[in-house]
Design a protein that fits this description.
Elements lengths: L1 E6 L5 H10 L12 E4 L4 E6 L4 H7 L4 E5 H7 L3 E6 L5 E7 L14 E4 L2 H10 L5 E4 L6 H4 L5 E6 L3 H5 L3 E10 L1 E6 L7 H18 E9 L3 H7 L7 E4 L5 E9 L3 H11 L2 E7 L6
Helix pairs in contact: 3-4
Length: about 280
């Protein structure tokens, strides 16, 4: 069986399990379940701490895993990302009290507090900065107030918690992160079971990004309509019983669907419908 690590908690857990369910895999019903066997798909899922997943995968005990890019890089494990999953996006930034520093070049001799010691140490070394790094678990915003560090490095979404702690974001982002599928560095890239798993997840990503659009159109406006909805290869076009009209079906990007519907309506198209796509293969 293909052995896959899945986050057992945190912001990665729910979306990862939801994507796997959409891809046709069984998922656990109780949060206490640590292992789930899906015999129909010949897969065994192991629910682990997100921070540990890269270590397990790099050891070869598990074939692939889902974790965050930040956790993968921070672990220093011999594993690599092979598919971006598009959820749990975040930006990793430095922050400090106003007037302390403007960017990483000012950190020499200072101390940086973070939960991601590996990432920060590598970033400082890359810029040739001689600064200390102290590891803290959980929220690090209070490290400056308590005198543990002059700088913190953490995931920043809205920045509200930083402002509440009297801190401001400084410098360029250290990195951006999102959920990714990982495998051991040097593992067989042509493993058919892994390739099938990736195809399923890619199918979910495409299904989430596109909708199926159907509409009726006058024949004389068909070329203009097709230019708006070219589809992946080309749209499906069928004649209607009412002479001079055709029915068109095409995949369109979900984020552009409303604009395209407006343009089609102005062109004279009618009965314009969109439906969700639950799965696909390209």
């Amino acid at each position: 069986m293909l052995r896959i690590a899945v986050p057992n908690k945190g912001s990665l857990s729910g979306p990862a399990s939801a994507m796997l369910h959409e891809a046709g895999y069984q998922q656990r019903k109780e949060s206490k379940e640590l292992v789930l066997v899906d015999p129909e798909n010949e897969v065994e899922f192991f629910y682990l701490r997100p921070r540990d997943i890269a270590i397990y995968v790099s050891s070869g005990r598990l074939d692939i895993g889902i974790t965050g890019r930040d956790l993968l890089l921070d672990s220093g494990a011999s594993a690599e990302e092979i598919l971006q999953l598009g959820f749990a996006r975040s930006t990793f930034r430095y922050a400090t009290r106003p007037g302390t520093a403007k960017d990483v070049a000012d950190f020499t001799g200072m101390t940086v507090a973070t939960s991601y010691e590996g990432i920060v140490a590598a970033h400082l070394a890359e810029h040739g900065i001689d600064a200390s790094v102290v590891h803290l678990d959980g929220a690090v915003e209070t490290a400056v107030e308590l005198g543990v560090a002059q700088i913190i490095a953490d995931v920043v979404e809205t920045g509200t918690s930083l402002r509440n702690a009297g801190l401001e974001v400084i410098g360029e982002p250290i990195m951006t992160s999102e959920a990714v599928v990982i495998r051991r560095t040097g593992a067989d890239a042509e493993d058919p079971k892994v390739r099938q798993f990736l195809r399923r997840l890619q199918g979910v990503l495409v299904a989430r990004s596109y909708v199926m659009m159907d509409y009726d159109c006058r024949v004389e406006h068909l070329e203009q309509a097709v230019a708006l909805t070219p589809g992946l290869e080309s749209p499906t076009i069928s004649p209607l019983h009412h002479e001079g009209w055709v029915a068109v079906r095409s995949m369109v990007a979900a984020k552009e669907a409303q604009r395209i519907m407006d343009d089609l309506y102005e062109l004279g198209a009618r009965a314009i419908l969109t439906t969700a796509i639950h799965a696909c293969r390209l």
